[in-house]
Structures are given as C-alpha cells and as structure tokens.
Amino acid sequence: MTTTNPMRMLTTAGIPYEAMEYAYDESDLSGTHAAAELGLDPDATFKTLVLRGDKNGLFVCCIPVAEEVDLKKAAGISGNKKAEMIHVKELPVLTGYVRGGCSPIGMKKLFPTYVDETAQLFDTIAVSAGIRGQMLLLDPDALKGFIGAEYGDLVK
Q1: What separation, in Å, do the N-terminal and C-terminal C-alpha atoms of the chain show?
Q2: Per-residue model confidence as pLDDT tens digits over 13-45
Q3: Which domains are present in the chain?
Q4: Strand, coil or helix: 150
Q5: Which of 92, 98, 112 is nearest to 52 (CA)?
Q6: How far is the C-alpha of 119 from the C-alpha of 137, rounded, in Å?
Q7: What's CA 109's distance to the chain center, in Å?
Q8: pTM beyond cutoff 0.90
Q9: What local confidence, expressed as pLDDT, does residue 66 receive?
Q10: How far is CA 45 from CA 20, 41, 65, 92, 148, in A?
Q11: Number of helices and strands (H, E) in the chain?
Q12: pLDDT at res. 9
C-alpha cells in the first residue's frame, strides 16, 4: 500500500484512521464501485467534489457516493447564488488529485469544504486516500475539524 499525503497529514496531526486498498477499474471510477469492492456501506462512503461558485469561487463538497449533489443547496451553503461542478480536466491542476482519487485532505489549497450532514450518523466514514484504489476510514468529526469543514444538507 502506498503512503499518501493525506495519510502523512493525519498521522502528523495524531488523527487515527484506517487505510484500505481495493482494485479500481478504469472503466468505473465511481465511489459506489469502491464501496462495493471494500464491502463498505455506500451511505458512509463519501466522494469529494469540487465546485465553482459565482461569487466565492472554488469550494469542496463531500457527499455519499450513491447521491448527487444539489447545486442549489451547495451554492446556498457556500454563500453563492449559483454553483457548478468544475471540469474534470481542471481537477489535477486545482487540487493535485485525479478523478477517482480526490481526497478532501491535502489539496494544493485549503478550499472551503462542506460535508453532507448524514456523515454525523456514522462512527466512521470513508474518503479517498488521495489516489485511486485507496480509501481512508476515519471519524467524521475528526475529518471536519482537521480540514475546517462544515456540515450541511448537500444532496438531492
């Protein structure tokens, strides 16, 4: 297993986590595939999305993998009137991560981040470890505190 920057950052901060590895499929980089491969509850497995607001620029939303972000709700919580997903080609440039391996931890810049409120229902949630094929399990409140995120209603 590769030690990723998010792992190093969590270790340095003394935040406990469990790293899990799975075989990813180039033709299916979905979070639901990752959850299934690892035998995880898709409701407790979160994908990281990067959006652009019309007023405040870039921000990040972490939502359950089987859900779809509600752009209107995401815009509202981030102080924007409108929001849209960034183009996948922008992802590595802006975050340092690729599609299917985008972690809310350790992006090139600390963007305002919002975690769907359902994360609070679980003792641990899974997020990307920063590369395809690896996930991190950690306490949602520890994640929220570490990245300075807020909880909110983000899904349709």
Answers
A1: 35
A2: 999 999 999 988 878 878 899 999 999 999 999
A3: 5-152 (3.90.960.10)
A4: strand
A5: 112
A6: 12
A7: 14
A8: yes
A9: 95
A10: 12, 6, 6, 22, 19
A11: 5, 8
A12: 98
